[in-house]
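pipeline: protein-struct stage 2 | run 1193 | Thioredoxin domain-containing protein
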Amino acid sequence: MIEELTNKNFRSVIGQPNRSVLVKYYHPKCAACRPAGQAFRDSAQAFSGRRDQLAFCAMDVSANACPAGIYVPGTPYIQLYIRGTRGGARIWASSTRTRLIASSRLSSV
């Protein structure tokens, strides 16, 4: 399951002390977001048994302004926020149009 983020719930979701959060920023009319979205959904499904450790979330940048301190240079854009960090410190970001990072990289999160 992919949780939809909004301006109202963004900080509370990424600031959770017990799990990391992978956020996909997208625009509904973005052509590159469609294949990236499918890869993101596939990854969320593959990690569905670890939802207590890793959350998959998405934020529509056409409907929500990016929260203060968050810079999204383009879509699709993916950021990983590590559990237990103040404000959900970003450790990985990409606007690449290739596949989502390999599952083996996420297994240590």
